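Notebook entry, structure prediction.
Reason for the run: the old model in the group folder had no record of what sequence produced it. Starting over properly, with the input documented here first.
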Amino acid sequence: MDMCISASSERKVRKAEVLSERLILRPNPRTLTKERIRDLLLKEIDAIANIPVEGDILKAIELIYQQVHEKHGKVVVSGMGKAGQIGVNIATTLSSTGTPAVFIHPAEAQHGDLGLVQANDVILAISNSGKTREVVELEYLSKQLYPDIKFILLTGNKDTELADRANVVIYTGGPKEICPLGLTPTTSTTVMTVAGDILVVLMMEKIGFTKADYAKRHHSGYLGQKAKEE
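New structure, fully documented this time:
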């Protein structure tokens, strides 16, 4: 009888703990105020404002210019998951603004897509942890193909072997995620996106990219029409 009561009590305690955890993860909608939204916005803004500007972004610009605009290679952007989605945006935006770039999925690279990489290219790998297995393997396999290929790492963690092997490390500052679990890519993807935007803009300024140049690469749609206007 005592054992049954004890087991029942343990179940009740555990149920209470689970309910408590759910309340923490699912705050009452009444607590989702404008102040909370403003607080989240300020944390994102603070993360952007604290992206280090120690010269590594400028080193990346010089390396991309050297490999793409002097040696006629291209930027090969890569990343897994959310970082990969940011990479697609960086690659397509670079291409539309005068710096040829492509995206390669690091897992697909191991199934033949590595053939896209050429000797004069520069790889721009994106990994917040700096430890993403597929990205680490991409760096290794690319250097097996071309030992002298240039490698830029965009990361929130500069204390990794991958960072040590990169020619240039663009460090985002490694901000904490605003996700209540501290896990979902939120703030980290914000700063990576901003770093990508800065790369694009600085490259446009570096090569003297004009509105006419933009129009030649962006023929259709609203932006294409705007680019053609005098």
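Summary: The longest strand covers residues 150-155.
The old model has been moved to the deprecated folder.
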